[in-house]
């Protein structure tokens, strides 16, 4: 698997100060995609042991709230396979630090036609899933942590326990996920 960027001390892609990993490869090709350079699976650098170790180390300070996964498309089959061992390692080493994942697929698609051998392992580690494609007609710059109103911020552990989608509530001051 390749990745296009790692942002340290990122405050835009999830709650708090985070390390964000942008993986390469996305077949969806949404109009007005925010990151079309990353559509190619060959774009960027190899996701080597060295960068994995660097990311894990970056999560150590108390002020770093957690890891965010973006793309490209982290849930493309190749990227699920490329991420799963690493995500399990992060969960093992920092069980208290929430993992966010941004995907253009819906949660229902991940359980259906987009499911791979790695999907259940990934979903058991991911705390928050921001799902669905970016839709330009539904763009709303007042939304917190997402670009268009069709996208949902899903509490994955609660969703798996309930057997139906449970939206993340987060800070009560931001319960509507808008500002
Ligand atoms: S799913 Fe994300 S990375 Fe892929 S085309 Fe859509 S906005 Fe771009």
From TrEMBL:
<keyword id="KW-0949">S-adenosyl-L-methionine</keyword>
<dbReference type="InterPro" id="IPR013785">
    <property type="entry name" value="Aldolase_TIM"/>
</dbReference>
<dbReference type="InterPro" id="IPR012837">
    <property type="entry name" value="NrdG"/>
</dbReference>
<dbReference type="InterPro" id="IPR007197">
    <property type="entry name" value="rSAM"/>
</dbReference>
<dbReference type="GO" id="GO:0043365">
    <property type="term" value="F:[formate-C-acetyltransferase]-activating enzyme activity"/>
</dbReference>
<keyword id="KW-0004">4Fe-4S</keyword>
<dbReference type="GO" id="GO:0046872">
    <property type="term" value="F:metal ion binding"/>
</dbReference>
<keyword id="KW-0408">Iron</keyword>
<keyword id="KW-0560">Oxidoreductase</keyword>
<protein>
    <recommendedName>
        <fullName>Anaerobic ribonucleoside-triphosphate reductase-activating protein</fullName>
        <ecNumber>1.97.1.-</ecNumber>
    </recommendedName>
</protein>
<keyword id="KW-0479">Metal-binding</keyword>
<dbReference type="Pfam" id="PF13353">
    <property type="entry name" value="Fer4_12"/>
</dbReference>
<dbReference type="InterPro" id="IPR034457">
    <property type="entry name" value="Organic_radical-activating"/>
</dbReference>
<keyword id="KW-0411">Iron-sulfur</keyword>
<dbReference type="InterPro" id="IPR001989">
    <property type="entry name" value="Radical_activat_CS"/>
</dbReference>
<dbReference type="InterPro" id="IPR058240">
    <property type="entry name" value="rSAM_sf"/>
</dbReference>
<comment type="function">
    <text>Activation of anaerobic ribonucleoside-triphosphate reductase under anaerobic conditions by generation of an organic free radical, using S-adenosylmethionine and reduced flavodoxin as cosubstrates to produce 5'-deoxy-adenosine.</text>
</comment>
<dbReference type="GO" id="GO:0004748">
    <property type="term" value="F:ribonucleoside-diphosphate reductase activity, thioredoxin disulfide as acceptor"/>
</dbReference>
<dbReference type="GO" id="GO:0051539">
    <property type="term" value="F:4 iron, 4 sulfur cluster binding"/>
</dbReference>
<comment type="similarity">
    <text>Belongs to the organic radical-activating enzymes family.</text>
</comment>
């Amino acid at each position: 698997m390749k990745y296009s960027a790692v942002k340290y001390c990122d405050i835009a892609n999830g709650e708090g100060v985070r390390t964000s990993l942008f993986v390469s490869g996305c077949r969806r090709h949404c109009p007005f995609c925010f990151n079309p350079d990353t559509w190619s699976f060959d774009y960027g650098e190899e996701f080597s042991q060295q960068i994995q170790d660097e990311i894990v180390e970056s999560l150590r300070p108390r002020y770093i709230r957690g890891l965010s996964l973006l793309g490209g498309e982290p849930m493309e089959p190749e990227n699920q396979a490329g991420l799963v061992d690493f995500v399990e390692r992060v969960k093992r080493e920092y069980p208290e630090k929430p993992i966010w994942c941004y995907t253009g697929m819906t949660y229902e698609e991940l359980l259906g036609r987009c499911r791979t051998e790695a999907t259940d392992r990934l979903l058991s580690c991911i705390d928050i899933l921001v799902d669905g494609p970016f839709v330009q007609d539904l763009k709303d710059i007042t939304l917190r942590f997402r670009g268009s109103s069709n996208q949902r911020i899903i509490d994955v552990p609660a969703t798996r326990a309930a057997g139906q989608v449970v939206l993340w509530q987060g800070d009560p001051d931001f319960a509507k996920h808008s500002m």
